[in-house]
Every structure is written in structure tokens, then in C-alpha cells.
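A reminder from the course coordinator: this example appears on the midterm review sheet, so study it carefully.

Given structure:
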């Protein structure tokens, strides 16, 4: 399996940064905050950017874990999935804590109380990298699927990915999961990368997931607005942010104690600054869609101040502007689950981002051979419909589209159902013949205690056994730990 690495350069050994400063708490205004709240140099010693703090917004730090008790993030860290601990390859205790330092540093820059952009955002530690900052592509894919299942659709959230892998090394599998997160309303910020094995900058389009068009791919600049010597460039870089250089690094939280700090440089440090800004905008307008937030961040960047940039790179530097963003039509409904019973189909979904204007209705269309055969319009807040009287043994397609005062939102693709059927008492049925989840994850089934006399799950092979006529109440989820969708199946 191909490996990926964290995109930072430990600053204690870089240039003229004194190693002795690595253990001192930040003093005064952090220069990176000072730089991004003003358009032009010189720095004015003011790192403030207004009343927004990111409160109420989740920032998923997919990295080496986070020291949850560090003073920069104390009380605001939730341990998420920890794959290296789960599979025994690199265990930490408590789970999702940090034995490398990189993840804590990144979390501090995104959401630290004095060094971060969004000082009251919640940090969710998603650990995929080991104590050396290395990891497996497959682990990242699994972690991003967990994030998608954990995130509550329709509510703005941010994911930061300060690592990368060559596209040829299975990077496209990460790209697919990143795009799936963006499609359901999550802003994804990505480090552009720190060059090749020799430290020479390369085209960021060759690194996953920085090549994903809808992700915010972030390059790095130093304190004088000169592009950092290590930063990847090119057309896939959406904007630049302070990442440090040989003369000045970024100070943030570290792993060894609750008051431990370290200086670090890298595109890993630039990316979480953009993640923090996304959290500020999301706090102000929680229903905004990911692409709207991302476009606003790009549009509001300072143009033309970066020096040393390549001809194929866009000259944009992160600038914190918290003016409200114009509302748009809604996004796309997600987590669509379809089940069949009693010659009917039930479709349920999670509401999409509302675009900054409250949802007014949702239209659910049922198609057969490409033609609409039934349609239901339901009020906002209704997230499931049942189509009855359908032809046994036939497959249908479902399309869901929400609307708000601005207009119609993004329609889902045509979601093909399983063959319509009845569930007959005494039958034993494969669950895949009864239900499916749009995301591509297999459904995890459970049966309610109140239905044990009507139906039960049989293992090896997994089947739903219909014991007698009645209502079988089941829980459906895409990943362990997710709150289940409750569905009633009619047994004839």
C-alpha cells in the first residue's frame, strides 16, 4: 500500500530559527494572524479580525492526532476515529492523541485560543498518521468516509488535510472521498505540498488531494510575502497563506505538555489558517454551501502582493474579510437511503446546505425507464417519502431536489433502487435486496428490541429473517458509531 506524509518541515533545524524558542509560549501577536488581517505589509502588530470565533463549527483535523488538553484547544477537542490505534500499527492513549506533534500544531493554527484563526471552533481529531507523520492511503480513505458519515449534512463544517501523496500512488482514491465531502457541504482545505524528495517545488496538480478542483489548495509564503522556498505552485493552488521560511516560522501547540509550543514551517501550516477562516464564515452563515464559502475565500484574497511566484500560479494571499456572503440556491441532499417492502419504496435523505436562505420545500421524483411516474412535493423539514403501488420485481430511480427563496437547488443523481418486492413471513432475505445507501458504503443493519418477535438478523451469511406478519423496526447506518436512520419494514 502506498504511503503519504505530513507536509511540514520541523523548524527547529531550519535556517536562523533559534531552537531554544521552541519551548516558550507565544508572546504578543502571532505574525501569521497579523499578516492575514491586512492587505499590505508592513505588519502593524494587530492580529484581531473581528467578533467571529468559529463557535459552533467543527474543524476535522485529519492528521497525527491532537493533544486535547493543550491550553490552545482545551475543552474543544472531540476524539474522532483513530485508525493507527484501531489496527494496532501505532497505538496512542488516549485515542486520537498526538505522538508526533504535527496534528497539534495544525489544530492550533486553525483553532487555537491565541495562535489560531477560529479560537472557539470545535476540533475533531481524526488520526490517520503515525508517530513519524506517515500513513497509508487506505487509512485516509476510511477516515474520510467516517467524516462523511459523522458530519451532519446541511450544517457547515471544515476538514483540513495537511498531507499529500503522488497521484500515481493511489491518490485518486483520496480525491474521490474529498469530492464526496465537498458535495455534501463540507469545506476541505489542503496543503499544496513541500516539493519533491530533494525539496524542489513541483506542480501541485501532481499531488493528491491538492488536485481536487473544489478543494481549497493552499501554498505557503514567508513573512515578507515571498513564496516559500519549498511550496508547490501551479494552477491547482487556489491561494497562499503564511507558512514560514528560513527566517521566520509559525508558532503553535505541540505534543509534549499542555503548555508546549514549537516553531514549524510548511504548507501544512498555511492550510489550517484557511480552514480557520472558513469556520468564521460558516459561523456567521451556517447554511452556506461549501463551494460558496470556498469561492468567497478566493475572491476576497489580496491580489498581486506575492513575489517569487511561478507564471502559472495565481497571485492570491489569504485575507480575513467577514462581510456577509450573498445567499444562493441549496446544495445537494445526501445520505440517501432507499428501502423496499410491500410493493413500495421509501426514500429518506439528509437536508442539504440551504445556501444561506431557509429551505422551503423538497421535490422527490420517481422515474421508470427515464420517465417520471410519480412525484411528491414535501415541506421543509420532511426528510422521507413512501411511494406505494409499485410493480413487483422492477427497479426505479429516485431524484431529490430542495428549493429555497433563491431557487431550485442541486438535484441528486438518478439513484437506482433495488427491485421492488414484498417481504413475506417465513422468508430469509439478504439486506442488500431491501436497502441501499447512496454514498456507496454498505448499510449496517440492526433490529429493534421491540421487533424481535417479528424479525431478526442472522449472521454468516447476513440475512433478515421475517418471523411473522407485522412491523419490523430496523436501524440503518453507513458506518459504526453513526446515529441510525430508523425505518419500519412491513412483513406480509
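Designed residues:
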Amino acid at each position: 500500500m502506498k504511503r503519504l506524509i505530513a507536509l511540514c518541515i520541523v523548524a527547529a533545524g531550519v535556517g536562523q530559527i533559534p531552537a531554544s524558542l521552541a519551548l516558550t509560549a507565544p508572546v504578543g501577536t502571532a505574525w501569521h494572524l497579523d499578516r492575514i488581517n491586512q492587505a499590505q505589509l508592513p505588519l502593524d502588530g494587530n492580529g484581531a479580525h473581528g467578533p467571529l470565533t468559529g463557535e459552533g463549527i467543527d474543524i476535522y483535523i485529519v492528521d497525527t492526532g491532537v493533544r486535547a488538553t493543550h491550553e490552545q484547544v482545551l475543552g474543544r477537542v472531540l476524539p474522532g476515529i483513530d485508525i493507527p490505534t484501531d489496527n494496532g500499527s501505532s497505538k496512542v492513549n488516549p485515542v486520537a492523541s498526538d505522538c508526533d506533534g504535527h496534528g497539534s500544531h495544525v489544530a492550533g493554527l486553525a483553532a487555537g485560543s491565541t495562535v489560531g484563526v477560529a479560537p472557539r471552533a470545535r476540533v475533531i481529531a481524526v488520526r490517520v498518521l503515525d508517530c513519524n507523520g506517515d500513513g497509508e492511503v487506505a487509512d485516509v480513505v476510511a477516515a474520510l468516509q467516517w467524516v462523511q458519515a459523522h458530519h451532519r449534512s446541511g450544517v457547515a463544517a471544515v476538514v483540513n488535510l495537511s498531507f499529500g501523496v503522488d497521484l500515481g500512488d493511489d491518490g485518486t482514491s483520496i480525491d474521490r472521498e474529498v469530492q464526496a465531502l465537498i458535495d455534501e457541504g463540507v469545506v476541505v482545505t489542503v496543503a499544496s505540498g513541500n516539493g519533491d524528495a530533494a525539496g524542489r517545488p513541483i506542480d501541485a496538480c501532481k499531488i493528491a488531494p491538492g488536485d481536487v478542483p473544489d478543494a481549497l489548495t493552499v501554498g505557503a509564503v514567508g513573512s515578507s510575502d515571498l513564496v516559500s522556498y519549498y511550496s508547490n505552485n501551479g494552477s491547482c493552488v487556489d491561494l497562499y497563506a503564511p507558512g514560514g521560511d528560513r527566517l521566520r516560522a509559525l508558532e503553535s501547540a505541540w505534543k509534549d505538555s499542555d503548555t508546549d509550543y514549537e516553531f514549524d514551517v510548511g504548507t501544512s501550516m498555511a492550510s489550517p489558517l484557511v480552514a480557520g477562516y472558513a469556520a468564521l464564515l460558516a459561523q456567521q452563515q451556517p447554511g452556506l454551501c461549501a463551494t460558496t464559502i470556498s469561492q468567497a475565500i478566493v475572491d476576497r484574497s489580496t491580489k498581486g502582493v506575492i513575489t517569487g511566484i511561478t507564471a502559472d500560479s495565481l497571485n492570491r494571499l489569504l485575507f480575513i474579510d467577514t462581510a456577509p456572503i450573498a445567499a444562493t440556491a441549496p446544495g445537494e441532499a445526501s445520505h440517501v437511503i432507499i428501502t423496499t417492502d410491500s410493493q413500495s419504496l421509501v426514500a429518506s435523505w439528509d437536508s442539504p446546505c440551504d445556501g444561506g436562505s431557509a429551505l422551503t420545500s423538497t421535490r422527490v421524483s420517481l422515474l421508470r425507464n427515464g420517465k417520471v411516474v410519480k412525484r411528491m412535493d414535501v415541506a421543509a423539514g420532511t426528510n422521507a417519502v413512501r411511494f406505494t403501488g409499485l410493480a413487483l420485481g422492477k427497479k426505479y430511480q429516485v431524484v431529490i431536489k430542495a428549493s429555497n427563496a433563491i431557487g431550485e437547488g442541486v438535484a441528486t443523481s438518478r439513484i437506482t433502487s433495488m427491485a421492488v418486492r414484498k417481504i413475506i413471513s417465513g422468508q430469509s432475505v439478504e439486506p442488500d435486496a431491501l436497502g441501499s445507501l447512496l454514498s456507496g458504503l454498505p448499510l449496517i443493519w440492526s433490529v429493534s428490541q421491540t421487533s424481535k418477535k417479528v424479525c431478526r438478523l442472522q449472521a454468516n451469511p447476513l440475512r433478515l429473517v421475517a418471523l411473522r406478519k407485522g412491523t419490523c423496526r430496523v436501524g440503518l447506518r453507513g458506518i459504526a458509531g453513526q446515529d441510525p436512520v430508523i425505518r419500519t419494514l412491513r412483513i406480509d
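Helices lie at 31-36, 83-86, 102-111, 137-150, 167-183, 267-284, 290-299. The chain has seven helices and 30 strands.
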